[in-house]
Amino acid sequence: MAVTILAIESSCDDTSAAVIRDGYILSNIVASQDIHKSYGGVVPELASRAHQANIVPVVDQAVKKAGISLKEINAVAFTRGPGLLGSLLVGTSFAKGFALSLGIPLIEVNHLQAHVLVHFIQKENKGKTPDFPFLCLLVSGGHTRIICLKSHLEMEILGNTIDDAAGEAFDKCGKLMGLPYPAGPVIDQLAFQGNKKAYVFSKPKVKGLDFSFSGLKTSFLYFLRDRIKDDPDFIEKNKADLCASLQYTIVTILTAKLVKASVETGIKEIGIAGGVSANSGLRDAVISESERRKWNLFIPEFSFTTDNAAMIGITAYYKYLRKEFTGQDVTPLARI
After folding, report:
1. How far apart are CA 256 and CA 252, in angstroms?
2. What is the pLDDT of residues 130-147, one digit of tens each?
3. Domain shared by 294 and 157, yes or no
4. Using alpha carbons only, what angle is made at residue 162 by residues 158 and 292, rounded to the nearest 5 degrees?
């Protein structure tokens, strides 16, 4: 009998619903919220209100695009956390009501675990999925981790950021240059036009496989402050080189730790995931290392790098097979 999962993702500012059947994606609908660009970051109250407006039509579209009836859905999955509490509450409440109305199980999903499992989403034209153990660099606006997967649902964190995440460093340094939010994609575009070795910024000396990006942000801030004293138009004149050098620094830090993790564990099944995995500099760097070190490399499609319900659905599918259901008394968690 086929297992069909309706999945809902609402951890931040994207409302998404997807339908997964036996690990294959049937639909994946995402409604983004452009209003936050005016404020230079996500405004939690505005995000939760937008989720309330978007969730019904998004779920409706996902079901219709999948070409299924509600009676075919075996379980409803939702993001429990981490994320913005108000946003999570909308998705959790909808999932609970939907499951209750159909008399089907609820499945809670860890948002970060789901980002890693995008590599196991099946499509008709999709190739091979990773073997275990699988080493994945998860890089997003709020998290930077190296995770070892021993099975679909058994994960070990080998390295974590001790302060800021890589995506946060991109956005905050971009804000210092007057770039719009989110700054990461803009920096990536401008970096193509610049010299990645034009400027040198500090790299943290963190033992093991952990990360730190707060020192880089401070170094970048002081660098701009000193240069602007001599030339008020310094940023505008050198924006491309600044972006290229900043991106090169962050990518070098990330790639070096991933290489270190691979060498120490002996694992050559390697992947990247999360919003920053869409960065062209990071993709080029890991591809280069993969060719040099004979990795079996997995890079997600661009549509699977940002928050989406398909990743929630694939995680829930494996939890469904193990009958890992949750009750109607479940509550969202901002931190897990």
Report:
1. 6
2. 999 999 999 987 899 999
3. yes
4. 50
